[in-house]
Amino acid sequence: MTAFIEDAVGTSAAFGSSQGFPEDWDLEALWVSLHGIYPVGVTISELEADCGGRSGISTEYLQQTLVEDALKKYEERESSLSPEIMRELERRVVLSVLDRRWRDHLYEMDYLQEGIGLRAMAQRDPLVEYQKEGYELFAAMMEGIKEESVGLLFSAEVSVETTSEGEQIQARGISNKEENRELQYSAPGEYSAPVTKTDDVSRNSLCPCGSGKKYKRCHGDPRNR
Fold first, then answer.
1. What does the alpha-carbon distance between residue 44 and residue 23 come to, in Å, rounded to a whole number?
2. Which end of the chain lies in a sparser environment, N or C, as judged by fewer CB atoms within 10 Å?
3. pTM for the full model?
4. Boundaries of each SecA Wing/Scaffold domain copy (predicted)?
């Protein structure tokens, strides 16, 4: 997980300092973005003071400072929970994010495949374009997995209940695929037809809800959940 933290925070810092001179960097917006990943402990004022003003801040120093700060917060999080609970939390976070992001990626690849033929009309090789855009989607998925996993690791509310069978760990905000196969999600005021245990339904089969649509266009589409 420390590698995820280094990549997610380092990438955000690099992106936030990629345009123009340090005086032009929107560090305030970067800090807002970073707070969605981890509880930032260093302030912009402290960073400027260390570098003799904003003009003295370099991308390398910004990345190093923020990554070190994030790793420090990670150690504090682990100390507050215990190493054992932290490992279990990490496992659940990564599995939950990976499962959802991978399914989203498969649907994006489906849409890409269905529309790739249009590239030929622009005198571009559809196969080359498919490979290129497919790789870009995969890379974006990997970056998203890292950033979301780190964000959940810091934001998840964890409670430990001691039972006769040992300690039971509950983490709010993290889905457990094995325990929530029959959960349904719908927007407030809307009704979603119940579909239970759809793991065995092919994406090209008719949806079990009876809508007449293919599963991948109905309850199998993450955007409809």
1. 12
2. C
3. 0.68
4. 5-156
